[in-house]
Amino acid sequence: MIRRIWAVFRKDVLIEFRTKDSLNAMLFFGVVVLVVFNFALESVRDTMREAVPGVLWVAFAFSGTLGLNRMFAAEKENRSLQGLLMVPIDRGVLYIGKMLAATLFMLITEAAVFVLSLVFFNLTVWREIPYLAIVFLIGTLGFTAVGTLLAAVAANTRMREVLLPLILFPVILPILVNAVEATGIILNSRDYAALRLPLTIMAVFTVVLATVSYLLFDYVLED
Amino acid sequence: MAERSRFDNTLGALLFIGMILALYMAFLQAPRERTMGDLQRIFYFHVPAGIAGLTALAVNFAASVAYLARKDRWWDSLALSAAELGVVFLAMVLVTGPIWAKPVWMVWWTWSPRLTSALVLWMLYVAYLLIRNYIPDPDRCAGISAVFGIVAFIDAPIVWFSIRWWRDIHPSPMLETGGLSPAMRPALWTCTAAFLLMLVYLLRRRLCLELARHDVEMLARRVQLPR
Q1: pTM for this prediction
Q2: From the candidates B148, B160, B164, B166, which should be mutated to test the interface with A, based on the most A CB atoms within 10 A?
């Protein structure tokens, strides 16, 4: 099973690294969101540090949605979805492979956007980086766990790109709320004991919704 | 049950009597609240609408699971009807809430856990209806919306727990804590019963309509009519 997941994952990552279609768009959009927020929050510049976690996660979620929208684009455009579905593997394997690929792309984007935000918002972090990495990783896994399923849902509709954010954001609210909270704790209060609660909720969300999505992915991808 | 049965007519008559009784209980029988005055009477509609709405969403969840297991159109039609009613009842909750809150809390809205999760729940099921709207193929629409119905219902409690640590100013459920005056209970129970009856009645009517619509679509397809 691991080998099969790896094959799906490798396929998506290879295609992406050769074309760089969605990675470029995700990275650039992440930067655009940062810049837009910089102007939107002009009046509270003095307390910008408080707003950084929110701005970061909005940028991650927006650029992540962009990536998720492209998740089935290659298959749709080349009409190879049929072929992929005919491969004698469990649909759940497809789900995990695609989800891990989406997670990797999002983490790359997040790293770049985060480094830029340090420059834009004038932050200095060193010792906080491992904690942030954990929060980013769990948050992103939760985001893609549902995102992969809902991207497949949206891919079936007439309004694909428009619909995904509408159905995705209400569902991932627990991830957004807690990821912002956790990032805020790390960047501002540094009370690491308080990280337990948001991290637990994010982990529970991820495990529960990944399981549900794994089981339901089959029904979304019928022919 | 593609036709209106005698049972539906009886149910409709019962609902009419129940609603009049509910109005009487809420506006005349129930005592005037000491600090909030008559304003408190909105409670007899706010809470029953919430109960009816959550019941409708539970029906949607059960019907979605049943559809994926059985692949029977009937379950899909039930899921759709229940989701629509859930959105309507939750909208009633979200409208009556701020009307009560403005004079009592001095604000229309506050981002307390209860309010936020009610709003998110409403949004989840509006998203459900949106998905249904944008999938032309009926079979695919049924399967995919069932998947989203299940995800939404499982997500709802997590949404609630994930924001629970926020300060909540919403009154806690008074039936659990026993804070509701015994004199107000009959009115609340009557209204809840009337709203649940309304849910059952509307659910049956909507389901009937949806099944008829589906039949017409199948017939039109068979004789190749352009829709």
Answers
A1: 0.89
A2: B148
Contacts of B110 (CB under 8 A, 6+ apart): B101, B169
State the Cα angle at A10 between A9 and A14, rounded to 5°. 120
Residue B2 maps to a domain:
no
Q: Does B155 contact A209 at a Cβ distance shorter than 8 Å?
A: yes
Is B87 within a domain? yes
Domain residues for the domain of B71 are: 17-26+38-224
Q: State pLDDT tens for residues B129-172.
A: 999 999 888 888 999 999 999 999 998 888 887 777 666 677 76
Q: Which residues of B touch A149 (CB under 8 A)?
A: 147, 151
On whether residue B154 sits in a domain, the answer given is: yes
Q: Is B189 within the bounds of a domain?
A: yes
What pLDDT, in 10s, does the model give residues A55-76?
A: 999 999 999 999 998 888 777 7
